[in-house]
Structure formats: structure tokens, C-alpha cells
Amino acid sequence: MEEKLSSVAKNFTPSPIQELSHLAQRCNAINLAEGFPDFPAPLQIKDVAVSAINSDFNQYRHVQGICDHLAAAMKKMHDLDVNPLTDIAICCGQTEAFAAAIFAVIDTGDEVVLFDPSYETYEGCITMAGGVPVYVALDPPQWTFCPGKLLKSFTGRTKAIVLNSPHNPTGKVFSKEELEVIAEACCRWDCLAITDEVYEHITFNDKKHISLASLPGMQKRTIITSSLSKTFSVTGWRIGWAIAPAFAASAIRNIHVKITDSAPAPFQEAALTALTSPPEYFEGLKKEYEFKRDFIAKVLTSIGFQIHFKPQGSIFLFAELPKDCLLSDVEYVKELIKEAGVVAVPGCGFFHKKLSMEPLSEASCNYQKRYVRFAFCKSIATLAAAAQKLSDLKNATRYEHS
Ligand SMILES: Cc1ncc(COP(=O)(O)O)c(C=O)c1O
């Protein structure tokens, strides 16, 4: 009966990240692959969730207070005027908000511009909606893009651009100047922008997250998606949102209601508390992750990884394989699991060969097999254990690079 599956289902395979995570579990390896914390969520928000369950918040629910807080936060962070009654849809994580946004605006044949490398779920949603992904390279080692190439990747068929900043997998935070180029392209071609801002509160040093929606002419054409997942270490709670002009927010809400009806009721209650956390919480989050970024960067450098670009935000470090390493990223990660008991993600899963301006030849896309993504959203104990295993590995004879 397998032939009864839809063509979409036939084309989808399990995410390589999930597969590696399962392998890591089977091998009892330290998981630096998936982007979820292994440390507890803040006590005060857990208490609210528990108390909501005990108070029988068990039914379908829309907590308007979340929208009110988000609207106030958008004003404070980005000087955006958001109507909490019409411009926000609460969804099950950024993942559902993004999918609903794509289904709200993409018709068969519509082109969607994305940067390469990119987070793997975007393409799946776009193709499910019948859209055509068009990739523009972020060039290593600094992950910059060529403004000319970006502008040329827009056509009369372009419906939207997807922007993820702070960026998974590179940790890049797009600068004001880069956002201006993207905004110019959107305005010139009268396109929408769908942003993924899940790492909005995780930026390092003097880097500040700027929402594309805050640039002139952009709010009316931007759908912001984000969530509680990363900021509050609750990826399993599935609370996220889309913030958009009323026409788009209403379409997203309609789609959300048909797919999941509402986000988990007790966790919506807890979200209210989370979103009103004091400024010290957000400062502490940045500092803690900055420390962990520096820690993992030092460990990886000491075993030969080349770190040309230190993450400016997010919870990932995208490191280039040691110069003398002849293994591909996939081979390296398999060795890492077997020999060191540590799992990370081969970078090739984030790259695409069909870039809009110049389909890459085998030789010119060699860099796509040279990166490994390490998630540092782990406890210090986990990171220290991984550091120990990696330095043991460095000395192992079977693991010579050449
Ligand atoms: C860039 C990016 N967007 C979205 C998500 C998932 O967000 P959520 O848990 O809110 O669905 C992730 C998780 O790793 C991510 O890295």
C-alpha cells in the first residue's frame, strides 16, 4: 500500500539531524547536534505551567495577554506599532508559524528567495506549498552575500524572501547595511519577507538584532516568526507566533486553526510569565551563551578546527574541518560518533547546489563538505565532557587526518 502515499510524503525523508540524534542516543554519545538545551528551563515559568495544569487549563485556548506583551515588546525592541488584536497569530512554535505563513502566501510556482546555507525546514514548507526555492549564497568564511547576486535572484515570479537572523547554522547576525539591501530588493520587486527571529535574544558582544520589519517600507510586507523555544529553553512546549500586517496575520490564524486549532493551553499561560521576564533575564541569557560559545570555540580550535567566523548570535558554531583533514563533513561526523562519542551535524545538510546565479560545479562547492555544526546550548558539564572526549580523540592514532 506504500504507493498510496502522496508525492510530498514520498519525497520527504527523515531529517539527517534527527537521524544523527537517534544514532547518538543509541551510542550514548554527547549530543552537540540538535539545537535544544539539556539544562532546566527557568523555575518561575515551569511553576506557572504546573499551576496552569493543576488549575485545569485543559481546553483549546487563546491567551490574548501573549499578543499584548508581544506588541509592547515589538515597540520597545524595534519601534514597531503592532495591533495586538489583529496582527498576531499564536502558533505551535516558530515551525508552525512559518509553515502557516508559507501556506498563507505561496501559490504553485511562486519563487521564494532564501540564503544558502539555511535551516532545513524552510525548503520543505515551501515545496509543500508548491513554491520554488531560489538560493543565494552566503559566501564563506564570513558568510557575506553579494548584493548584485541577491538583486538578480528576484524576478517577476518572486513572492517572498526568507530571512533568518541570527542565523542557523552560521551564527551570523545580518547587519543594518545588509538588511538595507534586502529591503531594497523587496520594495523594488514588491515582495513579502518572512523572517525567522527565534534567536532574537541571543546575540553576542556588541551585535544587536535588527528586525527586517523595522526598515523603511518593510513592516507592511514582513511576517515575523519567532517563539519561546530558544529564549526560554523550552523547545518542547511548542509556543510560537507570527507578527504580521492584519491581512497576513488573519490568514495565518485561519490556517493555524485548521491545522492545530490552538497552542498548548498550560504553556500559553507560562508564556505570559516568560515574556514579562526582567531585562536581567535576557542579559544573563546572552552572557551565558557567550561564555559557552567561547568555550566550545577554544576546544574546537585546540583540535585543529578552523574558526574564521565566531558566531555573533544563535546557539551554533559552524566550524571548518582541520586544514589537513581529508575526510568529508559526513565522514568526519561518523568518526566523531564512533571514536569520540560526540555527535555534531555535517554542514552539507544546510547547503544547496542549485544556487540562483551560478549552479555550483563539483569543484566550486567543495566548501559545502567542509563544515560541521556544533550546538553549544548545553550545560557546562556536557560541554566539558565533550571537550574531554574531543581532546582524547586528538591523540588517538586511528584518527589521523592525512
Ligand atoms: C532557525 C530556527 N528556526 C526555528 C527553529 C524551531 O523553532 P520552534 O521550536 O519554535 O519551532 C529552530 C530550531 O532549531 C531554528 O534553529
Automatic annotation (TrEMBL):
GO molecular function, one term: pyridoxal phosphate binding
Keyword field contains Cell inner membrane: no
GO cellular component: cytoplasm
Key word Transferase present: yes
Start and end residues of each Aminotransferase class I/classII large domain: 30-348
UniProt entry keywords in alphabetical sequence: Aminotransferase, Pyridoxal phosphate, Transferase
Cofactor(s) this protein requires: pyridoxal 5'-phosphate
Signal peptide stretch: none
Domain of life: Eukaryota
Pfam families attached to this UniProt entry: Aminotran_1_2 (PF00155)
PROSITE patterns: AA_TRANSFER_CLASS_1
Family: Belongs to the class-I pyridoxal-phosphate-dependent aminotransferase family.
Protein name according to UniProt: Aminotransferase class I/classII large domain-containing protein
Organism: Rubroshorea leprosula
Organism lineage: Eukaryota, Viridiplantae, Streptophyta, Embryophyta, Tracheophyta
